[in-house]
UniProtKB/TrEMBL annotation, chain A:
Taxonomic placement: Eukaryota, Fungi, Dikarya, Ascomycota, Pezizomycotina
Organism of derivation: Periconia digitata
One Gene Ontology term from the biological process aspect of the record: nuclear mRNA surveillance of mRNA 3'-end processing
Protein name, per record: Chromosome disjunction protein 3
A molecular function GO annotation: RNA binding
CDD domains tied to this protein: PIN_Rrp44-like
Primary location group: cytoplasm
TrEMBL record, chain B:
Basic and acidic residues: bias regions: 28-44
Oligomer status and interactors: Component of the RNA exosome complex. Specifically part of the catalytically inactive RNA exosome core complex (Exo-9) which may associate with the catalytic subunits RRP6 and DIS3 in cytoplasmic- and nuclear-specific RNA exosome complex forms. Exo-9 is formed by a hexameric base ring of RNase PH domain-containing subunits and a cap ring consisting of CSL4, RRP4 and RRP40.
Keyword line: Cytoplasm, Exosome
Main subcellular location of this protein, as a coarse class: cytoplasm
Signal peptide annotation: none
Domain Exoribonuclease phosphorolytic, chain residue ranges per copy: 65-196, 217-269
A GO cellular-component term linked to this record: cytoplasmic exosome (RNase complex)
Protein name: Ribosomal RNA-processing protein 41
Domain of life: Eukaryota
Length: 990, 290
């Protein structure tokens, strides 16, 4: 390199004072540490964004379209006890980490400056909190302004030698607060000569050292809790500060340790790499809160994690690393029902002293388990058992529950004394949460929302804090909101930005009369076709309509017409974003939480009868044997002739006096659908039963009056067959057009081991064989699983078989090999969802892809990116499952309400047997309930559990054997639980 | 309602895992994304999505600002032509050899009656960031090809039949806009070598800023650093002389058509400013030796 010296580039002339650099360290997967040097351009044109300041207006940045963002911070900010002239708040990182719930309160905490330093730290500490913080900055009413202090020359500081990153960042925050105070003062001086009140710019921090330094530098600063104390509703607000900070202060006093220390991250990484440790998601059994399992990639079967100590502070859903225990500590999975609520009723939320991690009762329960497992070890039943050694990622969310009455010291409603209480989560897999509150008396008997903040080694239970009350236990409002929260259903009304995306004409929107209108471009006029819709009674969001007519060549033309939602919902606008977040419409017994605003769902998109509607049509030519000759896809305009309910359609088809074209069309559809169905079954499609229960409500009060299991008519399956056919046809078309990005739905074949237990149960109890080598084998052998004396037995087996299946999932074509596309349950090699775009986001995406595949319109970029689509799939998979669970929970609640005060005997079937109880399924109500031995008699009768033969031999006065699959009569009553004041459906044996 | 977790001291990724609530009877093995393994994150900066918060990019620039440009000409006396160029932390050294008579046997691709332009790009071991082995080779080959094609048509090659002009580029540090930096450095070195060309070729990158969940607005961004290139769709544009004539246009990412126009506009504008800067460097050098 001859005479050229690299020194040149480091010469002082380039060391502009407005250029700095920042070094980030990151380690790669291979364990190497990398230094990344990044340039920082320091500038003086970053505005303060206060409406008090005029100087900054001149320097406010303009975007490409020459627009300037309006200033955020109010010129008359609210004041408080300590800052009567008003304040702009500058919280530090920990203030957001511990108090995010507070900052989100609509009635307090306005005019907040979020420093870049803080935003960056929050992001590094917790992504969910970071996203919530960013959402706050976009909420106009809250007036949160992100000030990029690290880029402004006056507020940028470099790290001193020997200064820790934390100290440097604290100093950066103080520097920014100081600058702001000076700047605001000058701004006001420049504005008027008159005396004006000058708001303070206040740092919020709980760090003592930081507070002390601020004081020394005369920078306004205050503790979060002190600031809140100066506000109205201080008590409520104070409860929302994370408990973690209180704990930090008392930590030094406590020495008792309940749990082993978690391994360091690097130790876990090494272990996982070496294969001596395993990573997976921690799942807790809904029947036994002390039994967890972790499915890890290395093994087919899940590893068991038994007991609280081995669980080592993992909460169901967390991503953990486990270590397999020595073989002599392996155990069989529990055959016993263990519920936290009953076992640890007497634990004290306040005091932890002297108690060990497992309470006496828990220990006893565990010992029995061990004994039992040892007794059976000769059969090789014990399973690999592991313990949690560390937590990779917490998956904590907000939990709905109620306050454990026993844990409340002072139940007086007026007491404002702070006390520690237990919150018992609705989700039985989640441990009790210790909560510090001043409102214990008021919260009793309420549905309460809380979060977990931390779980330290010295605390038997996790610590959390109260978020808000949903209302009285058992009240419809509170219970409905509770289940929506538990299943993370977005139920708030659509924001204005979403409603702004709706057509301006509102309900007056019509299909343009002139076919020259751009709306008609590329659409086929199918208004002459005799189309009708068939749906459940009272359906207002009609996604689909059908028609069939004979062709001159003797074949049939069959059309499925789907609401053209993608015409109204354009990719990436606010409405689309909201729908993509919601993922699906959620149906509760008395409530529907829409994915799209009502105007679209129930009117403009809905294929209502007698009016013209845009549709996306699939047209097939079908032979009389229901073989598909061709499929054709087109955007269209249709006019439905009638909206039938399943029952109305059935009656009309069955009534020979109707010989009109429309009815004959439906008869054709019915005839073809039966053939299609037979073909599917021949190919190995499964007919899996799930108990569908219908709750009849009186429309006025929506109080339940009766519960019935749903009846299925031929017309149900008519619609279903053609929807399946449309979905399959569209899947193939989209895949052909977009082999990488087609959004499809797959259903994986269940691993053989999934059927082991059921197959053994059928063999032992009924001498029946369940073959599982293919879906066809499963389907055929399920058909053989009958009991001549008990027609319901077959359904019961189907219900149980359903639970051995994997769940179907959406995926992006490029992420799987073609054989993996297969839909096991439907026995189709490819499948997608196309037919319900009003209520499922996946269908809307499929519409967009299909529209591009037939060259109707270009494909949006978001539908071309595999990674974006994977994100969409991931979200809608979760939403789909949550919606189902929420729907089920809603039915459960209403069934419970319908049974209130009743005392009925009903038939039930034994589905599962434990050593201290069994599960009974009651077909009439679709309920599944535990009957524990102690429910049968007091004191709890002794029993002998014959696990090999699935028999529970109950001794004493009861003197009775309970066998798997047995039909029993149960008495259904409801009782008030003493500890919670909650009503519960109770089943006993008759 | 979000159900966010809290206090995540030990939130790390050992493997990338899709979180799902598993039902007891529906155990899914954790899925691995087939993309790149997620790296463990410590002390990482914000990402490009924060641009919309205050119209500031990750390094403090506005949408239409170039990074600091530093350039020198005739850095190696022994070479026929040489230059050194920094665009932010992207640092490139360029030497020109030739036009040299003769060619190696078996070389194809260039007509005999004009000079062949050969380009070699090498990376210093410390040039930074993960060097992906196979991929970098392919990308380097593509860059070499782009440069060679662009200069073959630009240099008056017919003046040097049967000869070869070799451009050797040495990347000392990478921080985005690699191809643009190579073009700019080559132009300077070729001027230094005194090889006649019809016009200056200068280049810049431009991207389209990330959109947010509540707005679809996006600004075109000029002169990308490495982090921006990784997260945003971008293009490299090279223009000739004082004209807006585009001579090089490379876009390897998917860009929405409607964004392309503003990206090109800001890129071409950047080229103009780049040309002024390089012009200054050449004139300054000229002054010293006149
Ligand atoms: Zn200002």
């Amino acid at each position: 390199m001859d005479h050229f010296s690299l020194k040149r580039s480091n010469a002082p002339d380039r060391g502009n004072s407005n250029l700095s650099s920042k070094v980030y360290v990151r380690s790669t997967k291979s364990g190497k540490v990398q230094k990344i040097v990044r340039e920082l351009y320091l500038r003086q044109d970053i505005p303060c964004s206060s409406n008090l300041c005029r100087a900054c207006l001149d320097i406010a940045p303009k975007d490409y379209t020459n627009k300037t963002a309006s200033f955020v911070l109010s010129d008359t900010p609210a004041g408080s006890k300590n800052f009567p002239n008003g304040q702009y708040l500058v919280p530090d990182t920990n203030a957001f980490l511990t108090g995010m719930d507070l900052f989100e309160v609509e009635t307090a905490f306005h005019d907040v400056i979020v420093l870049q330093t803080v935003l960056e730290e929050v992001k590094n500490r917790s992504l969910p909190l970071y996203h919530r913080l960013v959402a706050l900055t976009k909420n106009e009413g809250k007036r949160f302004y992100v000030f990029f202090n690290e880029f402004r020359q006056e507020t940028y500081i470099s790290r001193g030698t020997g200064e820790t990153i934390n100290d440097r960042n604290d100093r950066a925050v103080r520097q920014a607060v100081q600058w702001y105070n000076t700047h605001i003062k000058e701004a006001i001086k420049a504005r008027s000569k008159k005396q004006m009140r000058i708001p303070s710019v206040v740092m919020i921090t709980d760090d003592r050292d930081n507070l002390r330094k601020a004081k020394a530098e005369s920078i306004p600063a205050i503790k979060l809790s002190d600031f809140v104390s100066g506000l109205e509703n201080a008590d409520e607000l104070l409860d929302m500060i994370s408990a973690a900070q209180d704990q930090r202060e008392v930590r030094s006093k406590q020495t008792e340790v309940f749990y082993p220390e978690h391994y360091s991250i690097s130790k876990m990484m090494t272990g996982v790499k070496a294969g001596t440790m395993h990573q997976g998601i921690f799942n807790v059994s809904p029947y036994n809160y002390l039994e967890g399992s972790v499915h890890v990639p290395t093994f087919d079967k899940s590893l068991l994690v038994l007991g609280r100590e081995n669980g080592n502070r993992a909460v169901s859903g967390d991503v953990v690393v486990v270590e397999v225990l020595p073989t002599d500590q392996w155990k069989a999975p529990s055959t016993k029902i263990i519920e936290e609520e009953t076992l640890n009723k007497n634990d004290n939320a306040e005091i932890e002293d002297g108690e060990t991690i497992t309470s006496e009762r828990e220990r006893k329960a565990l010992q029995e388990e061990v004994k039992r497992a040892h007794g059976q070890s000769s059969e090789g039943k014990p399973q690999p058992t592991a313990r949690v050694v560390g937590i990779v990622k917490r998956n904590w969310r907000q939990y709905v529950g109620h306050i454990d009455q026993g844990s409340v010291r002072s139940t007086s409603k007026s007491s404002r004394q702070q006390q520690m209480v237990f919150l018992v989560p609705m989700d039985k897999r989640v441990p009790k949460i210790r909560i510090r509150t001043r409102q214990a008396g008021e919260l009793l008997g309420q549905r309460v929302l809380a979060t977990i903040d931390s779980w330290e080694r010295n605390s038997r239970y996790p610590m959390g804090h109260f978020v808000r009350s949903l209302g009285e236990l058992e009240s419809k409002g509170a219970e409905t909101e509770a289940l929506l929260l538990e299943w993370d259903v977005q139920y708030k009304p659509f924001p204005k930005t979403v409603l702004d995306c709706l057509p301006a004409e509102g309900h007056d929107w019509k299909v343009p009369a002139s076919t020259d209108d751009p709306g008609w471009k590329g659409r086929r006029d199918l208004r002459d076709l005799l189309v009708c819709s068939i749906d459940p009674p009272g359906c207002v969001d009609i996604d689909d309509a059908l028609h069939a007519r004979q062709l001159p060549n003797g074949n049939f033309e069959v059309g499925v017409h789907i609401a053209d939602v993608s015409h109204f919902v354009k990719p990436n606008n606010a409405m689309d974003k909201e729908a993509s977040q919601r993922g699906t419409t959620v149906y509760l017994v008395d409530k529907r939480i829409d994915m799209l605003p009502m105007l679209l769902g129930t009117d403009l998109c809905s294929l209502k009868p007698y009016v013209e509607r845009y549709a996306f049509s699939v047209l097939w030519e079908v032979t009389p044997d229901a073989d598909i000759v061709s499929a054709h896809f087109t955007k269209s305009v249709i006019r439905s002739r009638e909206a039938f309910s399943y029952e109305q359609a059935q009656i009309r088809i069955d009534d020979d006096s109707h010989q009109d074209e429309l009815t004959n069309g439906m008869r054709t559809l019915l005839m073809l659908s039966k053939k299609l169905k037979q073909k599917r079954y021949d190919a190995g499609a499964l007919n899996l039963a799930s108990p569908e229960v219908k709750v009849q409500t009186e429309s006025e009060t929506s109080d339940p009056v009766d519960v019935q299991t749903k009846k299925l008519l031929d017309t149900n399956s008519l619609v279903e067959e053609f929807m399946l056919l449309a979905n399959i046809s569209v899947a193939a078309k989209n895949y052909e057009a977009f082999p990488q990005t087609a959004l499809l739905r797959r259903h994986a074949a269940p691993p053989k081991t999934n059927f082991e237990e059921l197959s053994n149960q059928l063999k032992v109890k009924k001498g029946l064989e369940l073959r599982s080598d293919s879906s066809k084998a499963v389907a055929d052998s399920l058909d053989q699983c009958t009991d001549a004396n008990e027609p319901f037995f077959n359904t019961l087996v189907r219900i149980m078989a359903t639970r051995c299946m994997m769940s179907a999932e959406y995926f992006c074509a490029g992420t799987q090999a073609y054989p993996e596309f297969r839909h096991y349950g439907l026995a189709s090699e490819i499948y997608t969802h196309f037919t319900s775009p009003i209520r499922r986001y996946a269908d809307l995406e499929a519409h967009r892809q299909l529209a591009a595949a037939i060259d109707y319109e270009p494909l949006d970029a978001s539908l071309q990116s595999k990674s974006k689509l994977e994100g969409v799939c991931k979200n809608i998979n979760v939403r789909h499952r949550n919606a189902q669970m929420a729907g089920r929970a809603s039915i459960e609640y209403y069934v419970g309400q319908a049974l209130k005060g009743k005392d009925i005997n009903e038939d039930g079937f034994v589905m599962k047997i434990f050593s201290n109880g069994f599960v009974v399924f009651v077909p009439r109500f679709g309920i599944e309930s535990l009957i524990r031995l102690r429910d049968l008699a007091a004191p709890e009768p002794e029993a002998e559990f014959d696990a090999e033969n699935y028999v529970l031999k109950i001794k004493g006065d009861v003197q009775r054997n309970i066998e798997l699959f047995e039909k029993v009569t149960v008495r259904i009553t409801d009782e008030v639980e003493e500890s919670t004041g909650k009503r519960k459906v109770k089943l006993t044996l008759v | 309602m979000t159900t966010a977790g809290k206090i995540v001291n030990n939130e790390i990724h050992l493997q990338s895992i899709h979180h799902q609530q598993t039902q007891p009877h529906q155990l899914h093995p954790p899925e691995h994304s087939d993309g790149e393994p997620e790296t463990k994150k410590q002390e990482m900066p914000l990402d490009t999505s924060t641009y919309s918060l205050a119209l500031l990019r990750l390094d403090g620039r506005r949408w239409n600002e170039l990074r600091r440009i530093h350039a020198q000409i005739n850095t190696q006396a022994a070479a026929d032509g040489s230059s050194y160029l920094e665009m932010g932390n992207t640092k490139v050294l360029c030497t020109v050899t030739g036009p040299a008579e003769g060619r190696q046997a078996g070389q194809r691709g260039a007509k005999d009656n004009e000079a062949k332009v050969e380009v070699e790009i090498g990376f210093a071991g410390f040039s930074g960031l993960e060097r992906r082995k196979r991929k970098s080779d392919k990308r380097t080959l593509e860059m070499q090809h782009t440069l060679s094609t662009a200069y073959s048509s630009l240099l008056l090659t017919h003046l040097y039949p049967h000869s070869t002009i070799t451009l050797t580029l040495h990347i000392l540090s990478q921080d985005g806009s690699m191809l643009a930096a190579c073009i700019n450095a080559s132009t300077l070195a070729l001027i230094d070598a005194g090889i006649p060309m019809s016009d200056y070729l200068v280049a810049c990158t431009a991207a389209s800023s990330a959109t947010t969940s509540d707005s679809d607005n996006s600004d075109p961004l000029l002169d990308l650093n490495n982090l921006e290139e990784q997260e945003l769709p971008f293009l490299t544009v090279g223009t000739l002389g004082r004209s807006d004539k585009v001579s090089v246009l490379i876009c390897e990412s998917r860009v929405r058509m409607e964004r392309m126009e503003s990206m090109l506009a800001v890129g071409i504008d950047g080229c103009k400013r780049m040309r002024e800067i390089l012009d200054g460097v050449v004139k300054e050098y000229g002054k010293r030796f006149s």
